[in-house]
Batch of 4 targets.
Target 1
Amino acid sequence: MTAAPTQARRRQDMTLPLLLLAAVTSLVLIISQHGDVLARLGGLGTFLGNPLVRAVVLSLFLANLLFAYRWRTQPWAKVLVGAACLLLVLPWAGRDNTSLFDTAIQIGIFAALALGLNIVVGLAGLLDLGYVAFFAVGAYMWGIFGSGQIATILKYYGEHAGATNAGTLVIGLLLTVITAASMLFIRRAGKGRAPSRASSISFGLASFGLVAGLTLTGRALLVLNAAKAQGLATGLDAGFFWLFLALSIFAAAVMGVLIGLPVLRLKGDYLAIITLGLGEVIRVLANNLTLYTNGSQGTPPIKSASVPWLDALAGRLGFSPDQYPLFFLYFLVLIIISLIILVNIRLDRSRIGRAWIAIRDDEVAAQAMGIPLMRTKLIAFATGASFAGIMGMIFAAKQAATITPESFVLNQSIGVLSMVILGGMGSIPGVILGAAVVTLLNLSILPSLGEATANMNIPQQVNPAQLQRLVFGVILVVAMLFRPEGLLPNQRQAMQLHEGEDDNAPAVDSIEADSGQDAHAEMASPGLAGREDDERTGGVK
Amino acid sequence: MKKFGLTAMMLAGALALGNASAATVIKIATLSPLSGGQSDLGTQIKNGAQLAVNEYKAQFAKLGFDLQLVGYDDQADPATGTASARKIAADKSILAVVGTLNSGVAIPSSAALQPSHVAMVSPANTANQVTDRGLSNMNRIVARDDAQGPAGANFIMSNLKAKKVYIINDKTAYGEGLAKEVEKALKAKNVQVVAYEGTEEKNDFSSIIAKIQLQKPDAVYFGGIYNQAGVFIKQLRDKGLDTPVIGGDGFDSAELATIAGAGANNIYFTTVAAPIDALPAAKIFAGNYQKAFKKPAQGFGAFGYDAGKVVVQGVLAAIKNNGNKLPTRVQVENAIRKGAFSGLLSGSVTFNSVGDRKAAKMYVMNVQGGKYKLATTVNVSAPRN
Amino acid sequence: MDLSTLAPFLVNVVVGGLVLGFVYAIIALGYTMVYGVLQLINFAHSEVFVTGAIVGYEVFRVLEPSPMNGYLKLIIALIAAMIVSGGLNVLIERLAYRPLRNAPKLVPLITAIGVSLILQDLLKIIEGLQGRFDLTYTLPQGFSNKFCATGSSCAAFGDTLRRIGVDLQVKDIILVVVALLSLAVLNYLVNHTRLGRAIRAVAQDRVTAGLMGIDSNRMISATFLIGGALGGVSGVLFGMKFGTVNAYSGFDPGIIAFTAAVLGGIGSIPGAVLGGLLLGVIQNLIGVTNVLGSITGIANLAAIDASYQRIGAFIVLVLILIFKPTGLLGKSNTEKV
């Protein structure tokens, strides 16, 4: 529904149409969410109140942002439309219908996830089917510390202190520092040379020591703080939210490196299936480590930070107190998403961004040009993971009541992947659009099909409410068949391949842009057996 | 082209809706998984509630209200459930909700509904935490884990006289919560629990069955849903083990016996829904269900019906209290929490201060040779008043 | 616990794992065949396989009242499932993958996911319209009996087997025999016929094979037909073994089977079989680790119960792939530029 505008229209100045469209859709959106006004409008009100119509209005309204981005208009108009839509109209409509906030935050969360996965899959060409694991790490970071779960953990360690005391903490810290230092030393000493067997073994030993040191330190910290369990019955103070925003990024990135280290030497679909497996491992651990996550029963209620002046502002604007957290999170998501987009744009144009693309297109050639394969891939993994980590934390704060492992199933990873591909792999606006389209479909448009037809006389077996997967599947297949390059394909790649041509050329041709990967498919393969595509290359041997 | 299609659909939707707006519309929502792997259970809940709504449609029409049911899909996913809950909150004509299937969805959804005081009556969530939070809008008609678990454990001890029990759960909030309470109750009475383990496996139970063969428990408790438990029981019996298998209300389905096939023996489960033969109303319900949905009625359908009936009777009471005018959500919330509801398949219902069922008769059903019989009844009451 | 009880227990666990492994192996073959020619993870294969299981269910249901020989019923069910699943797989390839032959690799992956979602709901509708969701197999008389039960002519043999822990049912034997037969046929087809040679040529190099006069589209269709037919067979076997299927039950075994294919070296037929058997056994062994832990007195093992079955398999996969990045039987070549 957010199809790109046609060629001809983009040629002219579209300032006026954009402003008009934005004004109209904003007005309709606000009206359609306002029950009292609808009631006074009679037939039109009934029409606008129809769930399906509402969902379409919301989609059209959000499409303004797309048009503002795509159409050729005065720059001020773009900024005006963007700012007005996101900062003014959406919160306004959200006041009457809280679900808009929910949907908008969810779109933001998935946009960040898709941008993160885009780095891993779209830029670096590493197919990751367990991406939701990093989301889970971020979510449980705050889900544990921001809820009463931390008190449960501390209480447990207080009762099972063992021989732990301040000495253990010192030993743990020492071990951590020494092993970390030796790991750095080994890395530095081995720089520029292929790692020898001895160096890899000592590196492995040191990393084992590091894990042991961290475990000891963590345990000692927990035991020594056990007395504080009483005061933490509802979790850490909400002020820690800000610290944990940073920590969740860090934790997810570390997780990315830890998962990446053993698996990133694998290629192609071996990597895909192994990341899928590790994603499941994280979910099953979350389900089984009852002490830390409360397992399938879900964490206790989770806090969210509150900014007093923002709450006051929201109160002044007529929001009800229960909407304050979502109001806050909405703006927080906007800020984070803008930062993530900035980071992405910077990365895209940076040395590391080019290195990723080089690796994706041809690993051997990239290596020959002096790109350190493993490190570059690890950075991609860690960067992608960190986006998921921070959004996981926002998700935990948004869910507020509890988080359970059900939220981190394999289907979520697959969903994010479909956003990236549907939007246009490697293209920043593309994957954001993909995330918005898929999230809108899942949370707004497809459910509204069911709501709108609830009282029609349709046999329940074929009722659209029951067939969301079918409709979503059809949309995926049709979209891919007709726009295999994605809704908003990567402009740079398209341009590189079509120099001198119309730079607004329909991006259908950018199929070739990605043919770097495809080239593998044409290479010799030993019968039905493993293909060289999956071969480990030099440098990491 | 796409846009044209959408416009056409919009028009069609408008036309369909334009005709039906004479009386004031009161909507009851259901929130349950309607698509995906758990859609069968979620649809049963929705269908059951639909029957309750159909039953009271005429009564509401007399008062000048058009009673409707809208099914919302939570896809068994907490985030989707929360989003649907907020949509329900925004639709002012929805006065109450029947839902959900999964506790992991019920907890955040009820929290999202609470500020707008949309009452929720759960047909399936047994996890203690669902009502322990003391939300004003969350109620349930099923027994809590810590009421149902001990009931099952007591039956294992006193009726089956088991000394060694093997406990399995399905690693969901429902199954694990229930199994934990059973374990706790058994251990308190010094019954040996030879194993307590979870499994997400739905097809192959050979490793668990090998362990059961090795450890020879007197009874197996399975905290889970019938379609998983049925497969397990079938494989257990195929190996020649006749050990009794006990479960909770997740077993309450005719499908259990169908799936277990020739092995549908020595199965017991605790439930608040009366056996179909015991109540004339249950027979009528089963007939109506079959007629309306061309499917035999199952346990979750009965629970959905009961929860739907509580909701509808609550709304009706609120209307009457309000002088036959449209009640507010808070009035409905109060009417449900404070009201007394009768004519349900599970007897009559009153809620305590946190929304747990005050006292319920719990039936222990026995499956022998594929037939369901009443084994015994237990009275359970909510831990608080 | 002494050895005389422990040994049969372990044999029992391993044998159970092997039987399960045969089911995984046949499903894995469907993945690996398609991967071999298109380098595509055919996510829709799990639904192709469920389709086979549902066809098998329908055949057994319709034929239930007939006095026909049980094995004949089984053969009819297998053939029907092979035809429907094979045809469906070819159809999927024509509609959803072929138009994307030259698109980036991940695009057909997404259509595969889409097709998988579509098929799940379609199968649900088809059975739902008849008021069914969970489908329970009604097997012919005797299939659920014990293999070599007391009273049968081989009772003594059966007793010996049971004493060492091998406790099988007739349907388990059927499963293994059918699985081995399909393997043999597949092996013949791929390695000893013109068709097989052509398929292998296409898998190796589509362009060159085309220059040699091989119609690569036809060969790809043939591969999907064979893979789908194997999916149908595995569906019926799955339904027979576990008794119940529904429209969504393909997802889990599908993931494991694909893991098995990767473990064995994706694209390799013996690899898929080896991977399937290995995963079946590993899963079962991890499922009983807690008992082994309590017997050997290693307390830490006691926490590893059946809920770790699945991830145990994944961890083994990680370990194996770290040391052998192309899977157990995958060939490693040096990458050419």
Note: The two ends of chain A are 49 Å apart (CA to CA).
Target 2
Amino acid sequence: MEKEQRGAGALLYYDQNQNYHDFVIERNPDKCIQCQVCLRQCSYSVHGYDERHDEMRADETRCVGCHRCEALCPTGAITIKKNPSDFRDNALWTPWHIKNIYKQAATGGVLLTGMGNPSPYPVYWDRILLDASQVTNPSIDPLREPMELRNYLGAKPDAIEIINGDELKTTFTPQIPIEYPLLFSAMSYGSINLNIHCGLARAAEEMGILYNTGEGGLHPSLYRYGRNTIVQCASGRFGVHRDYLNAGVAIEIKVGQGAKPGIGGHLPGEKIGPEISLTRMIPEGTDALSPAPHHDIYSIEELRQLIYALKEATDYQKLVFVKIAAVHNSAAIASGMVRAGADVIALDGFRGGTGAAPTMIRDNVGIPIELALASVDERLRQEGIRNQASLIVAGGIRCSADVVKAIALGADAVYIATAALIAVGCTVCQRCYTGKCPWGIATNDPYLAKRINPEIAHEKLANLIRAWGHEIQEMLGGMGINALESLRGNREKLRGIGLNEVELQILGIKHAGA
Amino acid sequence: MEYVIIGNGVAAIGAVEGIRQWDAASPITIVSAEPYKVYGRPLISHLLAGKIHESDIFYRSDDYYDLRGVKLLLGMRAVQILPDKRKVASSDGRMLPFDRLLIATGGIPFMPPLPGRDGPDVYTFTTLDDVRKIEVLIGKAKKIVVIGGGLIGLKVSESLHDRGIRVTVVELADRILSTAFDPIAGEIIRKHLTEMGMEIILQNSATEIVRENGHIRAVIMSDGTRRDCEAVVIAIGVVPNISLVEGTGIKTNRGILTDDFMETSVSGIYAAGDVAEAHDLLLGQRRVTPIWPVAYLQGQYAGFNMAGAKIAYRGSIPMNSIEFYGIPTVSIGLSNPVGENYEVRHMYLPERNLYRKIVLKDHLLAGAVLVGRIQRAGILTGLILNRIDCESFKEELLKDDFGLINLPVEVRKKMLAVNP
Amino acid sequence: MKRVYPREEVCIGCHLCEIACIVEHSASKDIIKAFKAETPRPTARNLVEEEGAISFSVSCRHCNEPPCVQACISGAMVKDYQSGVVRHLEEKCMGCWSCIMACPYGVIRKNPVRKTVIKCDLCPERPIPACVEACPNRALIFEER
């Protein structure tokens, strides 16, 4: 009922600032067949149907630019465009700032957002170029020759000892083989729904990689994917119990998240339904508050205590990851983490995504992952402890070239999350925090969550990994390298473009042409 | 294996189709007194009303029998069944041997002993020939009295009314369609038909057909009133046509008694359709259920078992779908339950001629009556036939948009996921 | 035989299956013409049931022993035992609604323009029925079970 009234004269009752909406909806009347698919698909109630005039209407003030209606319109009648309405040009007072002030003046609240930092900071991936073999060192054709992408996560010994000719005497801590240098990054059950989790788990299983539960516990139906699971233990300790810790192949202690370094998380009580309540081990309807710090970790020493507590709890069979947001002193912190016993260091850059974060935090805190990665790798090498932990980077990995560059800068593997969500439909509208995700991803509303068919999600996610894998092989082959291991930290294969001396120095690469 | 079927109605067709699912080749012979290929018997009212042509009435295609290897002996009456000799004697003196026999002789109109009954212009209305006979009245007769306000009576009345004849229906019960309808449904339709110009007299019966010089002049009713008319149609029901089995040892009650496999008391001889008294799903006893879908189904199960499949017949439930001048009605199962332990709910909007009633017993749906809106009525039929526990959603059953979505999710998923 | 099976856990209630059915059974088989130029607009033979978060699309199950065929008084409803399809011969249909009374799935509808019924024909001109192909979320599966 409500939907039918909308779209017609609704602005009359709105705050005047609502007119400065971000998107306009262009509906081609020659193509619109009034089938109302747009109306049914829009979870923000933008579209309405006027039965008397057999006409579709739209309340553009509600449009978040998710493009769901456009995608499902069977006649292609809808185009979502940026609202051309402009304020007077002002390099300082941009429409973004002006609109935010209007919003806050109206609500008195913190600006909230979702996904990663969209601001126009430099993207170093785009200022780094890859090398290729010519004449002196032949390139390799991955379609004809073996090309190794397998990698093992875990601490490597300083040296190995062989006895009796070919017998390995050194004992290894657990190693996790991954068939691609790509892991699905932590996204909690709660922030995303079980259908996506299921798709991630199945894709990880098929592709021989790992996915990460995030801080929402592990739904009972997903224990069967344990060999491909990293369980997370974060400051809220949601869903953490003995079986959970032993369910996967690794436990990740999440200290920080790239999208919101320094602050905790908050899953509102209305999202805590029966299944999530069970999985998170908190009562239905209560807010799931993850504190900003771990209240038992105030120093590297205390981190070490938790790492070893977890190792004890899992009989030293599981790897312990420690994940931090990339911040100013990442290199020193990472060194401490390795010394505290972390098997894997995960660094999450400032482009990393989130289900919800204060906009100011997301857009202004943290540093680019490229720089953090280079400095952490360099520091660990200098200290001679690089082998003691694997290094995974996250936060804005968009394509296989970014992956190759990350590996060459020193990473063992990368985490992807935003890219994975885009693979299943996400259009990065940044409204994850509303719980109304029209693509059925960042929502547990049963009506919307059905939009993710785990089977389709599985296929698309596996395809993405497969496709990037092919491309990585091509790029490796071009450089004359036949194993990913040989690229790790091989910064000679990288050149900067348009970078200054300091940037080049931090990245540890030469400028193009040099 | 040789099959003989006596009768060529829908039960016979059901049997042919049932046999052929299990036995593709053995010869089947159909003996039928009527000289026509199978026709949609309920369509005779459409034919009389002039809504369809005679060629539209045939139920199966012209080559139907040939394609299925069925030998058709039309216009030939089976005069005697010789169970011991496994033969049927026909009116032309032939002896038809059989291994399996189906008696599907249907029903014949019940003719009450009524003064003035014998003579011209008293009609019945169950066959194509009846239409041809009544057809001569069109344009000549102005008033006709129809005795019986059941399905046949009302349908013939509607057709005659459509052809410009003033019709009076006399019904003994307190409502029309007394077996299928309850008082509210009966009243909605009575009112509607009256508004359309038909006269319907309830709780009354014809006691005499008055003739002058042999011609019908009027019908006198039990309360003494009189209706002038030129013809009378008697439509107070059909009775199983069991005369053929007298003296054969085949057991009968009202109809020919059949077991769960539609077999009669004589091995190898089956009965189906309006002549048979077969298991009734809701009453748990044997009963004659003279309706079209039941006849087909009984015929089909008889066919299965004649061909050796040994599949038990689930049992019949009565059901009728009838539309009266734009008001569709459906009644399924027990519409007027007798006895205790029935839970009856209804929804009635008189101003819109909408009525919906459901009858529950022991958490199971036992019957339903729908007037005005009948869409998806079959879901209710399915609930009755499949013995679905309705307790958890019984409130929903009265919604006129009741759908599969109102069923418990396990029931629905099972229904939709399996090979039907 | 291959049938269309709904999966309600992934049906998103978009009704694109109905739209595809309408187009497939239109004269032009062109979505815009079918909706804008053809009068009367063809009727969908499938039906999306919805309540709250639950939705699914149902259409004729093409039963092995179809109650609609048993109930049909005119011979308009026939089971083709070769293909398994339950076919409705519209020219023979008298609009008595017996099939509507009999169908346990409630998937036979009145034709809004003629006094006949209308039901799924499994898209005889397509290898995969239109509804199945149009479903954006694989909530309709066409397979042998």
Note: The longest helix of chain B spans residues 292-306.
Target 3
Amino acid sequence: MSKPVSRKAALKKKEEIAGYLFALPAILGLLIWTIGPMVASLGISLTDWQILSAAKWVGFDNYRTVITEDLFFKKSLLVTFYFAIGSVVFTMLASIVVALFMNYGVRGQAAFRTIFYLPTIVPIVASSMLWVWLFNPDFGLLNTVLKSVGLPTLMWIYDEATVIPSLILMSMWGCGSAALIILAGLQDVPKHLLEAVEIDGGNGWHKFRYVTIPMITPVIFFNLVMGLIGSLQAFAQAYVMTGGGPNNGTLFYVYLIYREAFQYNHFGYASALSWILFALIAALTAGVFKSSKAWVHYGGGK
Amino acid sequence: MRIRKTASFAVLLVCAALAAVPFLWLVRSSLMRTDELFIFPPRILPEELLWQNYADVFDIIPFARYLFNTLLILIPVMIGVVLTSSMCGYAFARLRFRFRNAWFALILSTMMLPSAVTLIPTFIMWSELRAVNTFWPLILPAWFGGGAFNIFLMRQFFMNIPRDLDESAVIDGASFLQIYIRIMLPLVKPALTVVAFFTFMNVWNDFFGPLIFLNEDSKFTLALGLLQLKGMYATDWNLLMAGSAIMVLPAIAMFFAGQKYFIEGISLTGIKG
């Protein structure tokens, strides 16, 4: 009788070993590319390290300098949050509108899905080039349209006042993938709930407000978190389109880190900056998660 | 109801036009003469279609070289990501081992980590290994699970396979490697395709990685090459647009090839995330 038991134990052991072997790439990856560098980065952030000289221990000096003295840091935080909040809010609104209309069962839904999704697969360098050309104050499409309908033209990305709204507009062009996610959420809204509102004498707005919106809050929440994390790390468009300008008006936070690390070779200082970014993103994500209890509705015991 | 549907259709049509216009402007500008770009009032369509612009891009900058470099990175990355993410997805979905869920949670949580935090030590490490300005920093990490997102995606697919399939194979004495190759992989082909497509897009679109790790012209990828074009010929917008179009085209072609899987993958991440 002991034989099957020991066979089972042997099998369990085999599965244990196989599990670790199969998962090994990911586990090693976690240690080599994430945890190791994180520990190192924390250490580096406590040093004064310029590439050619040896690292010098300075404790929390870098952090102190960032917070109390660095004017670029303050400006960078400001423009990064301006862009992140603006692009998340407007992209979300645009994607909800598009998804709602698509969900109406209009004809040619497949074609619409494709058209809205296409801008999101354009490589960021290519789309940045394209938008620099669209934003061109003299010959760009946008000012041409404004001129032809008799409106005053704008300087777009060449004026500090309009550069962030311009980039937000550009990011709205890529609302398609969020719209598809929301559309998938909308298609999961149970028909019987909408019918129940109708039976109770509710109109379209009631259905939207009391059924549709609550049912898609998990999807909105997902997009909100991912959008926020993504847009707080914006870099390429500013690098390609504006070089961080005008007047540091698009000196996004990751741009600041890039500049300190790879242009000025201030590795210690840049590491401190990156940890502050991490703390901000973590705090913000935690905040959004916490607030989600009040407004995200998980139906069906999910 | 009828009217509403028509109205929705009209709104969508306007939105779709707004989404499409920048593309049309890209193509239109890429086929114009330089002086034609700056005429006022502007021409909507080029006087004649100047396909020569596309050829010129290849003459002015070593675009073919950049394409070759991009493929040299892309192919090993795709192999590494598809192979290791499916292995790990299989382990986290079907095999029981100690601390499995803890490992998985840790790996998932890296999705929240801004890449800037690990960037500097990683750069220093590669620079100590004298591998900056080679393709290694852009290729090798892909062989370590291929990123949390892909592992997650693969795991979702593996979880949907009925339990008795591999359980009976185990009883029949099949090894886990055999089960993975003979039973599991054929069943998750759609997932492998999705992961491969996403990986293609990521590498094709990657700008930050090559910018940090490559510093010699001859090593540049298409993304950096395009930037070169901007720096050198800032006024030749027709060439810039032609270069951008060349970069956009393969991405769009890939999208159409795998549209079904792509959209499925996108929706899946949203709902089950």
Note: The two ends of chain B are 34 Å apart (CA to CA).
Target 4
Amino acid sequence: MEEKVIFEKVLEILKPYVREAEDLKTATEETDILNDLKVNSSRLVDIILAIEDEFDIEVSDDEADEVQTIGDTVSLITGKI
Amino acid sequence: MNHRRVVVTGLGIIAPNAHGIQDFEKALREGKSGIRFLPHLEKLKFGCRVGGIPDNLDQISEEYFPADILHVLNESMRYAGIAAIDAWTDAGMQIPLPDDDRVNWDSGAIVGTGIGGADTLGIIIPKVNEGRARRLGSAVVEQTMSSSVSARLSGLLALGNQVTTNSSACSTGTEAVIMGYERIREGKADKMLCGGAEGSSPYIWAGFDAMRVLNTGKNEVPEQASRPMSATAGGFIPGAGAGILLLESLDSAQQRGARIYGEILGGAVNSGGQRNGGSMSAPNGEGVQRCIRAALHHAGIGPGDVDVINGHLTATMADPLELANWAAALERTPVDLPYIHSTKSLVGHCLGAAGGIECVASLLEVHKGFIHGSINCEDLHEKILPYEKRVVHDTIEKDFNILIKASFGFGDVNSCVVFQKYEG
């Protein structure tokens, strides 16, 4: 799967959790999920679960702890599929 | 201590027969029932297949909550949030922006629930049993903790005073109003959002169906199913929703020129100790009478001052006993009992939300000068027949001064609050 496709799928997964959906339109790989998109930190659990379901992968707690930006998320997924 | 006077400046309601104060008042005046046939209860093989669930919850919720909050709110939290926001804005208060870091340290919330997030428990239990606890997601604790119905209000409205949830079964909502009243009266807060919320989950209602305390005989005619005081009452009809009042010190209300629905003169809560006929599921009559008398004493009024009773009146065998207790506590005969009526005839028994919803109805009646009718009791129970002229069947337009509202709950717990028309 192309990284661009994964990137778009990640944006779709993030959509219910961001404070302002508009912020996703300008999101890049450097966009920080908590600080820039103002996602409640406890929702990262839900985002990881959604990623596992969408890409049929397993993400360990340690791997999940390393995710900060959208780029981190894309890299994590890319490395597992 | 110099106690402060407490008034009600905001009302919020999402009930089976209406959402919003204007529509709720209209529904009360017109005797509009919110009881509907519920196909999912038939599918689940309930004996009682009717109930009261507020309409259009999903659509209403989208208007009240940002998307990132809405998707983690379960049903009872949505009811509580909608009613609290309505009460807050009805009182002329502003909804703070999420990025505004100012906290309102003088405002809090006591919003109770009887059973709470049972819909979420219905998701948790199978997953845990299947060994999938790690797949539960992040929101299940905030949805199932008992304080779920009050905790979210803190964030929505930047409440910095006490934010808590009480739980005393069907007495919950009225008890919350009394607790908030006491907090403001003692000078510990200026404004308190108080009331109750309850979801409509079958997991909540199933226990009552199993106890055979729901009416199973009117599934074909839902609007006739909730029959407090009727000879053909066959049990209560479950309901859901929320009723929340914004209580405020009179000083605070006057300083900001707020509209005042009525004054809370006093209230009382107690338990019958599960003695002398009292049990986990029935009230000790002496406890009920003591609670009513204590509320009058605390309010500084006599039994002859009460004009209207908004009863607990659920449509069970307890209704005749309740009227006898009212008459004894108020030292009245059946022919001179204050006017009495049951909001549950219109909305069913909304459990932990019942007291809150009925207090909202009571304040509207005190403020606007009317007493809504109780439907489905044309055929009064034989033990209630002597009170016939005091039971309000059709809405009466009448200016009156004092309304007394009581709720009684499983566990043999009682609450009673006294509302007075505010004349300035």
Note: The first helix of chain A runs from residue 3 to 14.
